[in-house]
C-alpha cells in the first residue's frame, strides 16, 4: 500500500510544463473528475442508454404479450380438458351403471347355467348309478346262473348213468337237427 501512495506522491514532484500539471490533492480532484466523467457519460451515453432501455422495454412488453397469449391458450386448453373430463366422467358413469346391470345379468346367467350343469351332473350320476346297478345285477345273474348250471351238471352227472346219458345226448342231437331244418 505504501508503494501506491509513494507513486502518487512522487507525481507531485514532476516538473510543470506550462499550465498543465497534476493535482495530488485527492479530495479536491475526485469530485471534479467524477463530474467530468458523469457529464461525458450522460452526454454521449444518453442515446445508447435510452436505446438499451427502449429495447429492454420492448422485450419486456413482448414477453408480457406472449405470456398473455400463452395464458389465453392455456385457459382455452384447460376449458377443453375440463369439457373432455366431464364427458369422460359421464361416459364412465354410464359404463358403471351399464356395467352393474351387465354384471347382474351375467350373474343370473352364471347361476342358471350352474343349475343346468348341476342338473346334468345329477342326471349323469343317476344314469351311472343305474348302469352300475344293472351291471351288478347282470353279474350276479351270471354268477347265479353259473352256480345253478354247475349244480345242475353235478346233479345230472351223479344221477345219470351211461344209458340215460346217451338217450339225453340223442334227444338233444335230434332237437338240434329239427332246429336246423326249421332255420334252413
From TrEMBL:
The keyword Ion transport applies. The chain crosses the membrane at residues 32-49. It is found in: Membrane; Plastid, Chloroplast thylakoid membrane. It is a single-pass membrane protein. It comes from the Eukaryota. Pfam families: ATP-synt_B. Keywords: ATP synthesis, CF(0), Chloroplast, Hydrogen ion transport, Ion transport, Membrane, Plastid, Thylakoid, Transmembrane, Transmembrane helix, Transport. One of its GO terms (molecular function) is proton-transporting ATP synthase activity, rotational mechanism. One of its GO terms (cellular component) is proton-transporting ATP synthase complex. CDD domains: ATP-synt_Fo_b. InterPro entries: ATP_synth_b/b'su_bac/chlpt. Its main location: membrane. The keyword Secreted does not apply. Belongs to the ATPase B chain family. HAMAP family: ATP_synth_b_bprime. F-type ATPases have 2 components, F(1) - the catalytic core - and F(0) - the membrane proton channel. F(1) has five subunits: alpha(3), beta(3), gamma(1), delta(1), epsilon(1). F(0) has four main subunits: a(1), b(1), b'(1) and c(10-14). The alpha and beta chains form an alternating ring which encloses part of the gamma chain. F(1) is attached to F(0) by a central stalk formed by the gamma and epsilon chains, while a peripheral stalk is formed by the delta, b and b' chains. Component of the F(0) channel, it forms part of the peripheral stalk, linking F(1) to F(0). In plastids the F-type ATPase is also known as CF(1)CF(0). This is ATP synthase subunit b, chloroplastic. It comes from Primula obconica subsp. obconica. The gene is atpF.
Amino acid at each position: 500500500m505504501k508503494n501506491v501512495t509513494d507513486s502518487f506522491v512522487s507525481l507531485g514532484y514532476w516538473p510543470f510544463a506550462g499550465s498543465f500539471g497534476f493535482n495530488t490533492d485527492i479530495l479536491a480532484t475526485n469530485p471534479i473528475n467524477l463530474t467530468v466523467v458523469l457529464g461525458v457519460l450522460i452526454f454521449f451515453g444518453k442515446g445508447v442508454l435510452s436505446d438499451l432501455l427502449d429495447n429492454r422495454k420492448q422485450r419486456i412488453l413482448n414477453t408480457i404479450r406472449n405470456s398473455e397469449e400463452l395464458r389465453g391458450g392455456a385457459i382455452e386448453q384447460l376449458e377443453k380438458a375440463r369439457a373432455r373430463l366431464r364427458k369422460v366422467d359421464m361416459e364412465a358413469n354410464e359404463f358403471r351403471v351399464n356395467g352393474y346391470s351387465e354384471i347382474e345379468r351375467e350373474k343370473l346367467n352364471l347361476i342358471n347355467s350352474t343349475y343346468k350343469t348341476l342338473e346334468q351332473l345329477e342326471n349323469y350320476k343317476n344314469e351311472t348309478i343305474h348302469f352300475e346297478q344293472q351291471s351288478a345285477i347282470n353279474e350276479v345273474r351270471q354268477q347265479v346262473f353259473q352256480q345253478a348250471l354247475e349244480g345242475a351238471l353235478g346233479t345230472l352227472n351223479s344221477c345219470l348213468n351211461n344209458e340215460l346219458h346217451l338217450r339225453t345226448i340223442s334227444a338233444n342231437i335230434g332237437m338240434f337237427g329239427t332246429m336246423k331244418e326249421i332255420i334252413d
